[in-house]
Amino acid sequence: MSAKSAKHIRDKWRSKTWYMVVAPSFFGNIELGSIPAQEEQMLIGRVVEATLYDITGDFSHHYLKMFFQIHNVEGKTARTLFKGHEYSRDFLRSLVRRRTTKVDGLFNIVTKDGFKLRISVSALTLSRIKTSQETIIRDMMEKIIRDKAKALTMDQFVQEMVLGKIASDIYNQAKLVAPLRHVGIRKSKLIAAPTDLPKEAPVPPPTEEPEEEEEAEEETEAEEPEEESEASEESSE
């Protein structure tokens, strides 16, 4: 590389400004890290990834990946909206067991203040169950999720979702139908935001649920990891 090219690269980075990205206010405006940009408008719409552990400081939340989308810049501070969350791939693999049933539910919901979310819920049993039991558990999932969405704002719903309150409510009801080992909201995604948000706030287009995770889970059925079993049971309760 010539000296002229090297000088050009250095000048390009020197012209950028570093902005501090913060989580939404209902997560305490926790700092998520700094990112560079030549102009603040170039930050609008960018998605930042963190773990729930980075926000709460609780190591038991390390498996939950959080996504935040920048929607406004104030000075050197980039403010974000909750974009979604998902289980880490390793944690998802650890939940799969042979000779058990995994009950999945996928629901599109609208919160009290008009945010549209797509929610993926999973319940894992201690042994195989009947199809009729799966149907009952899935109906319980849907009722609890939709009742919560109608009663809670986006901020309240996200807090209860990622901190396990909604999953705990589902577990307490569904365990009456069949013995359960884990219940959790393994993934969520913001589909659309209300139109009365600031104009900088993007309205994400509807997206199809990817199937790659399901394939990864099927591959793990050939293995039966036991070392994380107790940890998974504690997280569900």
Task: Tell me the layout of helices and strands.
Layout: H1 3-14, E1 17-22, E2 31-37, E3 47-51, H2 52-56, E4 64-74, E5 77-87, H3 89-95, E6 102-110, E7 116-125, H4 131-151, H5 154-162, H6 165-174, E8 180-192, H7 212-220, H8 229-236
Parallel strand pairs: 1-5
Antiparallel strand pairs: 1-2, 3-4, 4-5, 5-8, 6-7, 7-8
Helix pairs in contact: 3-7, 4-6
Q: What's the end-to-end separation, in Å?
A: 58 Å
Which segments are poorly predicted (pLDDT under 50) over 5 or more consecutive residues?
199-237
Largest sheet: 8 strands, mixed
| N-to-C SSE string, H for helix and E for strand | HEEEHEEHEEHHHEHH
Q: What is the tally of beta strands? A: 8
Integer average pLDDT: 83
Q: What helical percentage do the residues reach? A: 25-40%
Please tell me what the overall shape is: elongated
Give the structural class.
alpha+beta
Give the percentage of residues in beta strands.
25-35%
In DSSP terms, counting alpha (H) and pi (I) runs of 4 or more, how many helices? 8
Q: What does the radius of gyration come to?
A: 21 Å
